[in-house]
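Incident log entry.

Two folding requests arrived from the same account within the same minute. Monitoring flagged them as a possible duplicate submission, but the sequences differ. Recording both here for audit purposes.

Request one:
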Amino acid sequence: MTPILVRPVREQLEHDRVIRLLQQRWRRKYAVGINQGSETTAVVGQPDAPIYPDVVLAPLGRPAKPEILVEVETGESVNNLEAMFEWVRMAQLKAAFHLYVPSGSVDAARRLCADHKIPVAEIWTYHPMGDQMRFTQVYKAPESRRASRRAAEAAAAPKKAARPAPSARAKKEKPAARKAPAAKRPAAAKKPAGSRKPAAAKQGAGKTATRKPAPRKLPRPAARAQKKK
């Protein structure tokens, strides 16, 4: 529960409106959980010390692994007690901590983060303009600081057990012999150039010459021989 137990009605309405707008802004990219007023539906941290941020952003399909924690403050809640009780605890988690404050409370919020060494990832301001709410980013943590924080978290995490080294017997064992490639078939012996037959001889060998029979001469008639006598 936040130390600011009772906000003025106007500030509470504005606070809840900002939460709903952030929910609509990120619902397509993240699984969004919100805590409006006295609601405690989105919870992070350990079971014995739960924390209830105003907005919890987790990757789609993995709501149990929050990626960004958002705290929306009003003019009355940007104070030393709120920073010690809420901001410090949220910033200690693995998720990135984003802070939303009114446009007139930027200097106070940055001073509180510096005094308590709160690694805030981003600071945004909001202010109403008619029926709309305008958001402006006023601070973003350098990438080098984020990288160093991730490296520290990775070093603190337990390392996986290393694979056992191969034994000396395994080293001595020779790899299996590879199969010898199949022997190639010997190429057919080429015939000498002189053994080739000419094309005309080949054609004559395949076909036999056929001659027509000579016409048979008929004997002269006997009557013609008698006239000559």
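Request two (distinct sequence, not a duplicate):
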Amino acid sequence: MGALSHIRVLDLSRVLAGPWATQILGDLGAEVVKIEKPGEGDETRRFGPPFLSMPDGSQGDATYFLAANRNKKSVAIDISKPDGAALVRRLARRSHVMVENFRTDMLERYGLDYASLASENPALIYCSVTGFGHDGPYKDKAGYDYLIQGMGGLMSITGQPDGAPGGEPMKVGVAVADVVSGLYTAIAILAALLHQSQTGEGQEIDMALFDCQAAMLANQATGYLAGGTVPRRLGNAHPSIVPYQVFATADGHLIVAVANDGQFHRLSKVLGAENLAGDARFASNGERVRHREALNAVLKPLLRARSTAEWIALLESANVPCGPINRVDQVFTDPQAIVRGLAIPVAHASGPLDLVASPLRLTATPPEYRLPPPRLGEHTDEVLRQHLDLSSEEIESLRAAAIVG
């Protein structure tokens, strides 16, 4: 039994941030009922290629959808129709949590806003995930990950410096603002569930991607807020630690992550340049940061003399943090990934496939992989029968009216 096996989540979210949060809840045992528009569903079902190939040769869902939608039941309901919205309201009365990521105040027109639902279910936890939150001048502005990475400061510190080849603001290769917002959202919901269990009270949660992106700036943000320093793009270098970056080797690249003076002394010895540790310019991390370019001018030709594998063997034997830059396929064939089980097999309508395992490792209540990412409307009949006591005839009548799919 999962830690949240007693919890039902009504999921009206789409794309990534909301679904990422609800997948975490589903992995921990919650029953997640995903409401999707008949005939269309979550936009990420079409975010491809790549797409799945079905046994009959037809094109299935985009693999993007698979990343955030396991352990969910898909129920196709058209909430723009009064009878469809009424079905969702009935489901909300029987749910502990509702998650949505519609634009601000959009659900009010369907009677699916917090005030309307809480009047019928005061214990409901209602979590809204938007780009900029429910107040402020941008509250009605669409908030896609790419925009948030730019407006939230991340792109200003990501990429090669001005003047360097390819020097321009750069987004991260994963929709990291969405993913981190999903993580913060799951944390907020778990906190609200603890409050609910102790008091019986629900509450409204207002999650904004912009807020989460600002929080994710971490030390770069406090460097500005507390220190007055506006960070700049440094490519693969670190603003506060040196040497902590990528170096070219004889056959590729190597990450050297020297975080203290002892590690720098050992690095100098392995490189056959022990004089570096005694050089006043490099004796402490603060001095190394100030003399970054001078140190790199010495390190770069030394590290180009051997292959990546040779350097890793030498540096690891001296306890100097280092590593390769793996492609995605190399990540999942790495011996560490295999031992940790980072790819998990699931049975899907398209055939057997692998998904990325949850990183949550709990001994008593570990994540469970009960359901593969659902086909659109796969569980409509099941959920309406079990949770709303609708008969087959009633469901078929709703389907004939295009209220459910």
